[in-house]
Every structure is written in C-alpha cells, then in structure tokens.
Specification:
The complex is a heterodimer of chains A (775) and B (527).
Chain A lengths: L1 H10 L2 H14 L3 H28 L9 E8 L9 E7 L1 H24 L5 E7 L3 H5 L21 E2 L5 E4 L5 E6 L1 H23 L3 H19 L16 H30 L4 H4 L2 H9 L12 H16 L8 H4 L5 H10 L1 H11 L1 H4 L11 H22 L4 H21 L3 H38 L24 H15 L6 H16 L1 H26 L6 H4 L6 H16 L16 H7 L13 H23 L10 H6 L1 H7 L4 H56 L3 H9 L1 H8 L4 H25 L1
Antiparallel strand pairs in A: 1-2, 3-6, 4-5, 5-6
Helix pairs in contact in A: 1-3, 2-3, 2-6, 3-4, 3-6, 4-6, 4-13, 4-18, 4-23, 6-7, 7-8, 8-11, 11-14, 11-16, 13-18, 14-17, 14-18, 16-17, 16-21, 16-27, 17-18, 17-21, 18-19, 18-20, 18-23, 18-24, 19-21, 19-23, 20-21, 20-25, 21-25, 28-29
Chain B lengths: L1 H5 L1 H18 L5 H28 L10 E9 L4 E7 L1 H20 L7 H20 L3 H10 L1 H11 L4 H30 L4 H7 L6 E2 L2 E2 H19 L8 H8 L2 H26 L1 H27 L4 H26 L10 H36 L15 H14 L6 H13 L9 H28 L3 E2 H6 L9 H19 L2 H15 L1
Antiparallel strand pairs in B: 1-2, 3-4
Helix pairs in contact in B: 2-3, 2-5, 3-4, 3-5, 4-5, 4-12, 4-15, 4-20, 5-6, 5-7, 5-12, 6-8, 7-8, 8-10, 8-11, 10-12, 11-12, 11-14, 12-14, 12-15, 13-14, 13-18, 14-15, 14-17, 14-18, 15-16, 15-17, 15-20, 15-21, 16-18, 17-20
C-alpha cells in the first residue's frame, strides 16, 4: 500500500501538466474538447489527491513522523551520490492539508471557467497605425469609445478575410474580430499548467522543486493576467492595461524570487541539501542557528536568520505583502477565474505555504514563549502592518474585485503575522479556510460581473441609452441584485460572512479566532492590530454586499442582470458548503464536543516538537465575536438599511474626508514606484548603460583606436615615402588601404573570395615561415 | 561500422567540408538542390554524433590528459612537432553535439535565402567544420587553425547576406576577433618553442609544472604573458565585458541563421577555450586573476541585461541577452579558476567548484539552444516585415497565435523559468559560486549577489520584447509591411524550431542525461 501511495503522489500534478500540452498541441481548435481535457485531467487529479489524502489521514499512523516520501537522483553532481541532488515528494500533515483544498478549489475553478469562457465567439482587437498604447503612457488622449463596446450593426462594417470580421465603432476606430476558439482553449491550457504547478509545489519534498512550481505559477499568472493582451482603455489613460499588469505582476514577484533564490543557494551550500526532512533535523537547525551570518548586521543575525529573511522576501513578493503588494490589485485585469486561482487556491497561498514549510528554519533558536527570531519579528511586523494597511485601502474601493484583492492581501497578512508570532497551526488553518471562502467570493464576484455584463448587453439591445464605457465591475453601477441573481447572492453572502468571521457558524471565524488567541497569548500588539483589521474586514465586506445586492438597481444593466448557468453556479454552492463546514474541524478543545482540537493535533504533528495547545481564554474569543458583529452591523446600518440611490456618493467619503481619497488611491504607492524605480531603471539602462558606457565609452575607445591606427598608418606611409622610401612602403600602403580594400570584397565574385581566402592562407603561411625558419 | 567508429571524429569533422565542396560545384540555377544537399550533409555529422553519444556512454573518457575518446593522431606538421590529434571528453562531446544539432536547424531556417544559395551553403558548412575542429582539437596549432578558420566564413556570411549596416559589423567582428587571435598565436608559439610540442594532453601534464628560462626570460613571466594573451583572445570571443560591443553589431546585422550559429556555437568557443586551455594550462595566473574575471562576469550579467532592456531593435535586444547569459558561464569559470585545478589552490570549495562548472557547461549548451531559437524567431518576423524595430510591431499575437505562443515559450526558457532548461544551469552556477571563498575572500559571493540584479532584469527585457511584439492593439503598419504575407510561422520554420522546444522541456525536467556526462569530466578536472 505504501509503495502505491508513493507512486500515486507523483501522479497528482501530472494530469493537469499533460492537459496543458495536450490542449496546446492537439485540441486547441475546439473549445469543447479543450474543456473536456482540462476538466477531465483536473478531476483525475482530484480523485487521486483525495484518495491519497484519505489514506494519509485515516490509514497512516503518525503521519508526522512517517510521512509518505519518495526520492530519486535528479542531478549527478560531484564524485558520489552523497553530493548529488535528489528530488522527491513528501506528504506530511501540512501536505495533506494542501491536498484537501488545492485540488478542490482548482476543480471548482475549472468547472466554473468552462462556463465563464462560454460566451462570445469572437476575439476583438483594436487596430491602429502605430502604437496608441505607447502614446497612452504619457500623452493624454481625447475621449473615445471603449473598444469592446462596438456597434455590430454599423453600416461601415465590412467583411475581413477568412472568418475574421472588420467593424468600426462609433468613434471610427477599426476593430477586427478574430475567431476566439484558440484563445479559449489556451485559457484552459494555462489554468491547467497553473494548477499542475501548484500541485507540484504541494507535493515537493525539497525547496528546489517547490521553487519550480512557484515560478511556473508566476509565468502562468503572467500569461493569465495578460490574457486579454490586446486590450487598452483609451477612455481611462490612468488605468493599467492587462499586458502591463501582467508584466508588473511578474516583475514584482520576481524581485522577491531572486532573493529567495539566493536564500536557496545559501541553504543548499550550507547544509548540502534542500530536502525539508534533512534540513529540519535537530543538529542541522542548531548549527544554522548557532553560526553567525557574515555580515551579521550588528543584530546577531545567524545563518538561519539570514536565509530565513531571504526566503521571507520571496513570500513578500508572492503573497503580495507590503511593500511588494502593488501587483496583486492590478492582477484583477485578468479573467475572474484567474483571480480566484491566483488569490485563493494557488499563487498567493504558495507564499504563505513557503513560510509554513520553512517554519522550523525561520524559528530556529526560538522556544515557545521566548523572544522571536529575526525573521519571525520581520514576519510579525510586516504581516500585521499589511493586514491593517490593505484593509484600509479596501474600504474605499469601487471595483468589486479590487475589494476582494485588498482583502486577500490583508488576510495573507493575518497568516504571515500568525507565523511570525509562532502560531503555526493557526496559520495553516486560516490558509485552508481562506482559500475556500476567497475562491468562493472571487467566483461569486465573477458571476456578478458576468450577470451585469449580460444585463448591459440586454439593456442595450432593448434600445436603452447606450452607456459609454460602462464598467461592469463598479459596485456603484450595481445594487438590487439580490432578487435577480439569488444563487450568487446567497453564496456570496456565505463567503462574505466567512471572511468577516461571523461567529460560530463560519469557517473564517474559527481560523481567525485561533490566530487572535495565539497573538493575545504571545504578542499583544499584534493582537490589537489584527483585531482592528478584523473589524475593518467585516465592515468593508458588508459594504460590498450592500452596494452590490441591496436596494434598487442603479443602472439598467443591473436591472436586467440574470443568473448565470449551472457551470458557474454549481462550484459556488459546493464551495459555500465548505466555507461553513471546513472550520468545524478546528474548533478549540474547550468548546469541542470531541474534547480535542483535531486539526491542531493533526497538523501539529508536522513539527519536530508538537506545538503546545493554548489554555482557553475568553477574551480573544469575545473580541473576535465583537469585532465581527460590530463591523457587519455598522456596514449593515450604512449600506443595507439605507441602500445607496443612483448617483449618490459613498457615505464613507463624507465621514473619512481626505483619508478616503488616500485609501482610494492606495496611498499613492503605484505612483511612487512608477516615479522612482521604474523611471530610474529605464533611464539608467538606456542612457547610462547603453548610450554612455557601450556606445560612448567602449565603442568610442574602439573607434579612437581604429582611427588612431589608420592615422598612424598614413603617417607611417608618409614617413616611408618621404624619409625611408624603402621596403616599409608596401606594408604601410597595405595597412592604409585595408579599409579601402574591404569595400570591394563584397563584389560577389567567387573568384575574388577565393583569392582573399588564398591570400589569407598565404599570409598565415608567411607568419609561420617567418616565425620558424627565418628567425 | 568498425570503420566509422575508428574514424568517427574525422568523419564528423570533414563531412561538412565534403558537402561544402559539393554544393560549390552544383549548378547555380537550382536553389532547391543546393539547399537540400547542404541539409543532407549537415545531417550526416548529426547522425554520427548520436552514435558518438551512445559509444561514449559505453566507454566514457573524462580526462583527456590521460585518455581521450575516439582519439586519432596523424602526422601533420612534423617539422614543428604538431600533429593532427583529435579526441573528446565529456565537455567537448557536449559541444560537438550542440554544433551538429544546431547546424541543420540553421540550414533549414536558411532555406529562405534567395541570393547566391550555393555560396551561402558552402560557407555555412565550412563554418561548421571550423567550429567542430576547435572542439575536437588536441593540438594547440590545430586548435588555432580551426579557431581562425571559423572566422572567415562568418565574416562573409555577415558581409554578403547581412542587413543595412553589415559592412561596419562584419569588419568590427573580423578585426576584433583577429586582434585577439594574434596574441593567441604568439603565445601558442612561445609554448611550442619551449616545450617542443603542441600536444594538449602532453602540455597538460608537463607545462603547468615546467620551470626554467627561455632566452634569459623566466618561464613564469612567459606563463603570465601567455595567460593574458589566451585570456584576452577567449574573452573577446565569449564575450566578456568590456570586450562585448562587437557582438550586438555582428548579431544584429548577420542573416538569421548566421546569428543562430554565432550565438549558439561561436560564443561557446571562447568559454570552451577557458575550460580546455586556460584553466588546465595556467592554474596559477588563473587563480590570481579569478576575482577580476568574476567582477567582469558580474558586469556582463548586469550591464548586459540593462543594455538589452534599453533596445528598441528586437534583434539587438536578443543579442545583448547573450552577453547577459554568457556572463553566468564566465562567473562559474572564474570561481572554478580560483578554487584551482588538480587540487592546486583551495580545495575546501571543491564540490562547489564542481557544481559551478557543471552549471557553466550546461549553460553553454542551454544558451546555445535558447539563443538559436530566439534568433530564429526574430528572423521569422524580420523575414515578413523587413524591420527589427519593435515600435513598428505590436498586437501581432492575434494574427500569429502559434508564432506568439512559441515566442513566449522560448522567452520563458531564455529568462530561466524553472521547469525549462535555462534554470537548471543558472541555478547550478549560482549555487556553485555563492559559497566559494566565503571564508577568506567574499568577492564571489558578492558578485553572485549583484548578478541577481541581472537575473531580475533578464525578466524585464524579455517581457518588454514580448509586449512590444505581441501585446497591445494590432499595429497596422506591421501588417502592411508584410505585403500580404501571413505573419504566422510556417511549417518549415516550425520544424526547425521543434527540436529546440522539445529540448527545453526535456533538459528542464530531466537534465541528468546531460549533466551526468558533464559532471564526470568536470569532477575529474577539479580533483
């Protein structure tokens, strides 16, 4: 049985990876086939993963000490097998948790995607002479129509070649419609690769394999965020285009990745291995904690601390922690299932997962209740700051997806802070519940957007006034959707309550409570910051629900919105189920009818030393109940009891004043980065490196030498002609005329080339004769 | 078969020459005949190399100082004690395979050449022979002859079939490399004069420990001089910063297939020279000079990436990426030079140096694949639009979806995405170099850390290129410049690229079939 399981673990990431290649190579011409391949592969993975999960949880005693592992030599390095690099898989309790939620959410997202990508058989592309989007960078454009909103009945419309269609929008812009099949197939291929990479990361037994999955996800997110790669927003010059958002995401996370790679290289050189189980042996950890890093920066940084910090920077990028968080909200330019993948099941979870995995290293030298290690302190500070910081930004967002994006950053901050104060199990717990309810919320928001877009099309067809550049994601264009899209509304409400930590029922309550309880017991400052963030979370969630669903519709689009089809509804219902029940497995022992906290017992087994179970304390639990209910209550009072009318400003704006503007503009961090790093490096590379150093200095020197040689040759010639008038004549002449001679070389006559080659040989022979016989 | 096996290297080496001469005498009017003949004759060495790989695995040789594989020795220049001596170890085996693999692919890409096809193919096959000769030579003089031999066909390829600024570029390429070669020749002569042999295996055994004086000059002085001359010659070829400025010009102006070979193989000659000659023959000076070389490598990585980012010429951008990527090879070589060959020097970091050199050789192979593919892809666009100006492109993904997909995939391999080939070698280099000298001289650690900035910007310039070519609204200028030709990649071009794309994945996922061979040789070199 064990051998079978080892084999099966390798098979978990395989089907989606194969689906990626299958779709790109064979089924790209058919959307239906591609859907079947992708969903079929994910379903296979899901079945295998949950089979392994059940085996691991129920039929493998002491999974922590006896995890399911397998290894093989991946790279022969050095003289022996000892120095070679081995790779393999590992399923321990934390790995089992990932096997629970990653395949589940991924499968739901796959099913949802087939529905989300169903409508529209054309891919529209704006065509222009020159490059308008480059001009958009700096020049303000006159208002023109949104490329997507085109009038298909335009009399100017003319047929393009093949089945592509050329049409014109009302501003006279030319738009070509292409067959969209290949792009839809590619979408399924990309999310398959994405899921495969996340699963690879989940089963990896070493940091390098983890990094492989980590980076492939980065590339996939680049491809998926930039999925609508030719979209631009001529009406909104400040809005980031998908192509730019994709680059931003890739580059920002890569900043973290290069630090992480150094950390990996350092760890590998120091310990001679990257395998988790080998690194986390007691003596290796002890040595690393006891060896001072060079330089130790005057804070007694140990090797473990330095490597831990480097790896943590990787997480800051991947899990969008301050100050590398700016890519994540812009990643909303991708299709909604992508947001769900990136934010819930996969990429951002990976960052926190890295910290969870490396926790023994990050906490090396720390004893429960003792002073925090350097990386832990950094995590506690950055995590709790990010939790609060992005919760404030989320308060003032208009875009339904951006609220969720900032809430994701904030919740990840909760997890990072939890790990920073040593609340290992709580972080794992929150990672799991958050993945589920955030996937639910993102898919719910996608469903909302989809419905409103359809409503907008519907309204348009029925002769309502054509709304210029209608934004289907703006919550202020919604309202009154409760009765129109009930399935979405109910499931979204459940997800929202879980996010807010609605007491006792929802999963989010139990996991967030556990973090707060740990924080209260160990580092009270973190507790207060997180508790306040939790209050804000509940408030902005209720604001979102109120703006979206409550009251009367504020636009025709919202009025005509209809429920989406079953492929998009089914995943919502399934995830809503788990958004409630998944928390019950981690109810604290004191309140649990079983008398123990099963999740704590299970996950705690991953660590060498089983983390202690905190004595139950009513204060943090009461706090989490109060902040959740208070936040929800205030939100309800402001946005649900008195729903906003069309055109009304956000009541919060009156209350917060200039702070609201600050939040809405995300503390101007994008502008700061754009103005400093981006501009500086563009200038530095173009002007300094290329123009000054390469073109000016180096080539200038070369040309100077060339001209000098030429000059010398001519002077030499003069000297010879007038002074020596002897044998040197011919040499100087030859050198002087070399450049002249080359002009004729490309005359194209083969005889001449052969003559040149022969001359070259003769010259070479001459050198030899001179060197060896005449001397 | 026995005959083939006994004369394997000679057959591989001279079958392109035979093909070249044949192409030259074929009737001029029939372009198809010339193309297919050339392709056929470039496939012969490739097929033979596959056999060679198999035979090598059955009976490997990892130390040419003792025994090289497929060794052949014949009288060539008895007066100078120089012989026709060829043979392989794990490093040269890998490079020969790279050369014989890339040449047929480049010839397939060259099918779009319409002018003077016979001459073109003649030069191309001649070029292959020159490169193969360098990798196979076990005699310094023979090495030099082949080294120079590759230069001439490349000069004409750029000069005749290049684009607008080809005169300047080919001249710069030729003179620059020639300048390096002069010193190389001089020091080869000095060594020959003193040792009365040009045989590399023999020199490896005797030369490093040779003491005495020649015409009153201490041999150590000569060793230092020769080391510098060797180093400069190879540094120009790699190219090591600041000797790199010929490269963007030559690459940019060369015809597509020329760039493929230039980046794919010719640059490797320089790095190969370091590995084969500089490290084993001059361990002392190499150790002293290593920190400087590491700094130069770092500058190549970082400034190469920045310079690449600054370009608006697609091909120039890719050309600069070679400077960036080859920097990692040089960084690893520098670190290994510091640790020292044959147990001389600092053996505490031996394993690290082995890992670094594994990375270097693998990076040479990987960069050969990815750079060739990138240049082929640039060529596809250039073939249609006759411009390399990125600002004239944009949004082309919708009209060339397959091409776009391949371009993105190749770019990912080029920027070192884990799971594809480039990452494995870059990781090995970083991992190997990082700890070297950390106890006494932290220069290598520091250089690795700064090089990470280059790694970051590798991403930046490649994504910039993709964005400028594929993303955004469809640029009608580009469509019109194609004069009705489809921008989509053709079957012929896809066939030329397919082996490379497959290898990206194969090496990325299971690199050990290659690393195993390289590792055995590198381990012997360093211990």
């Amino acid at each position: 049985m064990t051998i079978d399981l080892k084999f099966l673990v390798w098979l978990i990431p395989l089907p989606p990876l194969l689906a990626f290649f299958t779709i790109l190579l064979f089924t790209r011409g058919s959307k239906v086939l591609s859907d079947i391949v992708a969903v079929g592969a994910m379903l296979t993975t899901f079945v295998i993963a949950w089979f392994v999960l059940i085996q691991a949880v129920f039929f493998t005693p002491h999974l922590g000490e006896n995890p399911i592992t397998s290894q093989f030599v991946w790279l022969s390095l050095g003289p022996s097998i000892e120095t070679s690099f081995k790779t393999g898989t590992l399923i321990d309790p934390v790995g089992a948790v990932l096997l629970f939620f990653v395949p589940l959410t991924a499968l739901m997202i796959f099913i949802y995607s087939t529905g989300y990508m169903a409508s529209g058989s054309y891919w529209t592309a704006l065509v222009e002479h020159g490059r308008p989007e480059l001009a958009l960078d700096h020049v303000e454009h006159e208002r023109a129509d949104h490329p997507e909103h085109t009038n298909e009945d335009d009399p100017n419309a003319s047929a393009g070649h093949g089945h592509d269609k050329v049409i014109y929008d009302s501003a006279g812009r030319r738009i070509v419609k292409f067959d969209a099949t290949i792009w839809k197939a590619r979408f399924m291929a990309f999310i398959s690769l994405f899921a495969g990479a996340m699963l690879l990361l989940s089963v990896a037994d070493n940091l390098l394999l983890l990094f492989v999955g980590w980076e492939i996800m980065g590339a996939c997110s680049y491809l998926l965020i930039g999925f609508w790669h030719n979209r631009i927003y001529p009406d909104e010059p400040d809005r980031i285009t998908p192509a730019k958002a994709a680059i931003k995401a890739f580059m920002t996370t890569r900043v973290g990745d290069v630090f992480m790679l150094i950390g990996i290289a350092w760890l590998y050189s120091f310990t001679g291995t990257l395998s988790f189980r080998e690194i986390f042996s007691e003596e290796v950890l002890h040595t690393m904690a006891a060896t001072p890093a060079l330089p130790s920066f005057g804070i007694g940084l140990s090797v473990a601390g330095a490597i831990g910090l480097l790896l943590f920077i990787g997480t800051i990028g991947k899990s969008a922690q301050f100050p590398l968080h700016t890519w994540l909200p812009d990643a909303m330019e991708g299709p909604t299932p992508v947001s769900a993948m990136i934010h819930a099941a996969t990429m951002v979870s990976a960052g926190v997962y890295l910290l969870i995995r490396m926790f023994p290293l990050l906490s090396a030298g720390w004893t429960e209740g003792g002073p925090l290690t350097v990386p832990m302190t950094a995590m506690a500070v950055i995590g709790s700051f990010t939790a609060l910081f992005s919760a404030t930004i989320a308060l003032a967002q208009r875009d339904v997806k951006k609220v969720l994006a900032y809430s994701t950053i904030s919740q990840l901050g909760f997890m990072v802070a939890a790990l920073g104060i040593g609340a290992y199990v709580a972080a794992v717990f929150h990672l799991m519940t958050h993945a589920i309810f955030k996937a639910l919320l993102f898919m719910g928001s996608g469903s909302i957007i989809h419905s409103v877009e359809h409503g907008e099309e519907h309204a348009h067809h029925h002769g309502h006034h054509f709304e210029h550049s209608f934004d289907a994601q703006d919550m202020f264009n919604m309202g009154g959707l409760w009765s129109r899209i009930p399935v979405t509304a109910w499931t979204f409400l459940i997800g929202g309550l879980a996010l807010s930590g609605f007491p006792f029922v929802t999963a989010g309550f139990w996991s967030k409570d556990e973090i707060l309880a740990d924080a209260f017991a160990h580092v009270p400052v973190v507790f207060y910051v997180l508790a306040f963030s939790a209050f804000l979370t509940a408030f902005y969630t209720m604001r979102q629900i109120g703006l979206t669903f409550a009251g009367a519709p504020r636009t025709h689009a919202a009025e005509d919105a209809t429920q989406t089809d079953w492929r998009m509804n089914l995943p919502l219902i399934i995830l809503a189920f788990f958004a409630i029940t998944a928390g019950w497995i981690g109810i604290p022992a004191a309140l649990n009818p079983l008398g123990i906290n099963p999740f704590h017992e299970f996950v705690g087994g991953t660590l060498l030393e089983h983390p202690e179970t905190l004595p139950f304390n009513w204060f943090p639990m009461l706090t989490s109940i109060v902040v959740a209910l208070l936040g929800l209550g205030v939100g309800w009072a402001v946005y649900v009891r008195k729903p906003l009318a069309a055109g009304e400003v956000d009541p919060l704006k009156r209350t917060l004043g200039p702070l609201y503007t600050l939040f809405q503009n995300k503390y101007y961090m994008d502008q700061l980065y754009e103005g400093s790093f981006v501009r500086f490096f563009a200038w530095f590379s173009k002007t300094v490196v290329y123009e000054w150093i390469d073109r000016g200095l180096i080539d200038g020197l070369l040309h100077f030498i060339a001209r000098g040689t030429e000059w010398l040759a001519f002077r030499n010639k003069d000297f010879d002609t007038y002074v020596v008038n002897g044998a040197g004549d011919e040499l100087a002449e030859g050198v002087g005329n070399l450049g002249e001679a080359f002009k004729y070389v490309q005359s194209g006559r083969i005889q001449q080339y052969l003559a040149v080659a022969a001359a070259g040989l003769l010259m070479l022979a001459g050198v030899f004769v001179w060197a060896f016989f005449l001397r | 078969m026995d005959f083939i096996r006994a004369n394997l290297l000679t057959l591989i080496l001279f079958s392109p020459l035979f093909g070249a001469l044949l192409v030259l005498i074929l009737p001029k009017g029939n372009k198809g005949l010339a193309r297919w003949t050339a392709l056929l004759f470039s496939l012969i060495p490739f097929v033979l190399s596959l056999f060679m790989w198999q035979w090598f695995l059955a009976a490997p040789c990892h130390a040419i100082a003792e025994q090289a594989c497929f060794e052949q020795q014949a009288t060539w220049f008895p007066l100078l004690n120089s012989t026709y001596h060829i043979g392989l170890d794990g490093i040269s085996l890998t490079m020969v395979l790279l050369t014989t693999l890339l040449t047929p692919l480049a010839i397939i890409i060259s099918f779009s050449i319409e002018e003077r096809v016979n001459l073109y193919m003649f030069l191309f096959l001649l070029l292959e022979m020159g490169m193969l000769g360098v990798f196979m030579s076990l005699d310094l003089l023979l090495f030099f002859v082949f080294w120079e031999f590759g230069l001439v066909p490349m000069y004409f390829l750029i000069n005749i079939w290049g684009s607008a600024n080809r005169q300047y570029a080919s001249f710069k390429f030729f003179i620059y490399t020639m300048a390096g070669s002069l010193g190389l020749l001089l020091s080869i002569q000095l060594i020959g004069l003193m040792m009365h042999t040009f045989d590399i295996p023999e020199l490896m055994r005797t030369w490093p420990g040779y003491q005495g004086s020649v015409i009153g000059i201490d041999v150590n002085v000569i060793k230092n001089v020769a080391f510098w001359l060797f180093t400069i010659a190879f540094a120009i070829k790699v190219p090591v910063w600041p000797f790199h400025t010929w490269l963007p010009d030559a690459h940019t102006e060369a015809p597509t297939a020329g760039s493929m070979i230039l980046a794919g193989v010719l640059l490797k000659l320089g790095a190969y020279g370091f590995l084969r000659l500089v490290l084993p023959l001059f361990p002392g000076p190499a150790h002293n000079f290593a920190p400087v070389l590491a700094v130069l490598a770092m500058l190549a990585i970082v400034l190469g990436a920045f310079a690449s980012f600054a370009q608006t010429d697609f091909k120039r951008l890719v050309a600069y990426s070679s400077v960036n990527h080859m920097g990692f090879v040089v960084l690893a070589i520098a670190a290994a030079a510091w640790v020292g060959m044959n147990g001389q020097g600092n053996s505490a970091y031996q394993t690290d140096a082995i890992i670094a050199l594994n990375g270097a050789v693998l990076q040479m192979f990987n960069h050969g694949l990815s750079a060739a593919a990138m240049f082929a892809l640039v060529g596809v666009i250039y073939d249609r639009l006759h411009t390399r100006d990125l600002t004239q492109m944009g949004g082309l993904w919708v009209v060339a979806p397959i091409y776009g997909g391949i371009l993105v995939f190749t770019s990912m391999a080029s920027l070192g995405l884990p799971g594809l080939n480039g990452f494995v070698s870059e990781f090995l280099v970083v991992r190997g170099v990082w700890p070297i000298g950390s106890g006494s001289t932290a220069i290598f650690t520091l250089m690795t850390a700064i090089s990470m900035l280059g790694l970051l910007f590798t991403g930046a310039y490649i994504l910039k290129a993709i964005r400028m070519v594929l993303h955004g609204p469809l640029n009608l200028n580009a469509v019109e410049m194609a004069h009705g030709r489809s921008l989509e990649i053709t079957t012929r071009e896809t066939i030329a690229l397919a082996p490379l794309l497959v290898l990206f994945v194969v090496i990325g996922v299971f690199p050990n079939w290659l690393v195993d061979v390289i590792n055995a040789t590198v381990t012997r070199m360093l211990s």
